[in-house]
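Could you join me in thinking about how sequence relates to backbone shape in a protein? We need material for that, and I hope you will provide a protein of your own picking. Once you have written the record down, we can walk along the chain together:

…
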Amino acid sequence: MSPDGLATIGPLALERLRAAGLRPDSVGGLTLGADPVSYAIALASAQGGDPVRAFTVRKEAKAHGTGKLIEGPFAAGDRVVIIEDVITTGGSAHRAISAVREAGGLVIGVLAVVDREEGGCENLSSTGVPVFALTTVSEILAQLA
């Protein structure tokens, strides 16, 4: 959530989406891990002149107010990339995919900052959407060695 982290992650993630041929209308995922990454992507996209909206998927709908599970400028019919900070088992991404699909969104991919290489990307294969990561835990550990 640091300014430097957001300034780095947003453009890198947006570049990875574009390189994969993904052109979402909106990005988001399960709060809290996906939030800063999604917002950084939205800002980078606006600065590049091709805006992508960001949203948050609550862990459960609030009992008051709008009672929505998805907050932010998400709209039914959106082409969506689910965002994760770290993929371990894939459970958070599965929950976000289900929420978006139930709300009428079309999930076109999942993007994580880090794949912990513990089976999460493989577990997400059942969703029928491609999964991408900016890096893996092995790549990070290799740089630290």
